[in-house]
Amino acid sequence: MEALVLNGTKKLDVQDVKEPSLANDEVLIHTAYAGICGTDHALYAGLPGSADAVPPIVLGHENSGVIAKVGAAVTDFKVGDRVTVDPNIYCGKCRYCRTGRPELCDHLSAVGVTRDGGFEDYFTAPTEVVYHVPDNVSLKAAAVTEPISCAVHGVKLLKLTPYQKALVIGDGFMGQIFVQLLQAYGVHQVDLAGRSAEKLQNNKDNFGATRTFKMPEEKIPADYDVVIEAVGLPETQEQAIEATVKGAQVLMFGVGKPNQHFSMNTYEVFQKQLTVQGSFINPNAFEDSLALLAADKLDVLSLISHELDFNTVEDYLTGKLGTVSKAIVKVSEEA
Ligand SMILES: NC(=O)c1ccc[n+]([C@@H]2O[C@H](COP(=O)([O-])OP(=O)(O)OC[C@H]3O[C@@H](n4cnc5c(N)ncnc54)[C@H](O)[C@@H]3O)[C@@H](O)[C@H]2O)c1
Ligand SMILES: [Zn+2]
Ligand SMILES: [Zn+2]
């Protein structure tokens, strides 16, 4: 079978590999689709994702497919089931796992990061991280359950209620997911700041955004109870703090560089009683994400701009494809 193997820093090869062997509590998944995100950019460049990837390794932590085999001890899944995998596997034993914060696990491993993921025809996962895809959700949409779940985790770390006015900074894939998600969680007004006039208009026309700000030309007023920073630059992190009203919550979702800082008026944090909240990966969020997809509360298909194959992944990672909103690899025909 075919796999796209990361053999070293910036070294990706399409290779013929052996079908993986299956442990008793695992399923073998015939991959349908695998999404690509900033984590894959980092791993390709030799930087850590949620954990370190040690080559040779098959990436593909965002994925969907159909079960081809089940291990001897598996009872909840059968051959032919349509599934998606939460990539993160927690140890269950460290002080973070034992205090209800598994995402902070000291021994995190992950499908598509520390063990082979969806950039191959067949991959394995332990059933504890495998989820059935609802019948009315396509395997293409299900392949982005993981990034949706990161946004769901962020939203669950906030206290949301309908009266709030929210601002999302960043009109990438994640920012546009947040626009829809905040409304699904009951927030009555969601505004969006971004760089693409076309995406801003589309979010007004189709995703329920009320007001948009074209950056960097337009100024954001200090008007928001909830601000989601989904860019990861110091300037947008500063803007996120400055856009708040008293009692506001700021979710720092964007990933900055490891040594990056931004400046913040700490008097403002005191006087406005701000909450500045970080957000890391996607614990306990897959059920919510799949329910939102099944209930048609999230349009993800129109946000997927590029469908790639194993041979074009490197073109994307090296920037040859130009502006990419969201890329997904079609690994096999959708079942
Ligand atoms: N916390 C988590 O668990 C988690 C999970 C997934 C992604 N992320 C991070 O979230 C961020 C967004 O992810 P993405 O996939 O949408 O990335 P992306 O690169 O597709 O989107 C970033 C967007 O920000 C826009 N932008 C740039 N400068 C801006 C500015 N000054 N004002 C407003 N918008 C601006 C860009 O035009 C782009 O559309 C990234 O930093 C990513 O690493 C975090
Ligand atoms: Zn991802
Ligand atoms: Zn742990």
Summarize the structure in words:
This protein has nine helices and 18 strands. It starts with a strand and ends in a 5-residue tail after the last strand. The chain has helices at residues 38-44, 139-142, 145-156, 173-184, 197-206, 234-242, 266-271, 286-294, 313-317; strands at residues 2-8, 11-16, 26-36, 57-58, 62-70, 82-85, 88-89, 109-110, 122-126, 130-132, 165-169, 189-194, 212-214, 224-229, 244-252, 275-278, 306-308, 327-330. The chain has two domains: 2-146 and 282-330, Quinone Oxidoreductase, Chain A, domain 1 (Alpha-Beta Complex), CATH 3.90.180.10; 158-278, Rossmann fold, CATH 3.40.50.720. Helix 3 crosses helix 4 (173-184) and helix 3 (145-156) packs across helix 8 (286-294). Helices cover 22% and strands 27% of the residues. Strand 17 (306-308), helix 9 (313-317) and strand 18 (327-330) form a beta-alpha-beta unit. With 335 residues, the protein is an alpha/beta fold. The chain binds nicotinamide-adenine-dinucleotide (NAD) and zinc ion (2 copies). Belongs to the zinc-containing alcohol dehydrogenase family. It comes from Periweissella beninensis. Residues 24-135 form the Alcohol dehydrogenase-like N-terminal domain.
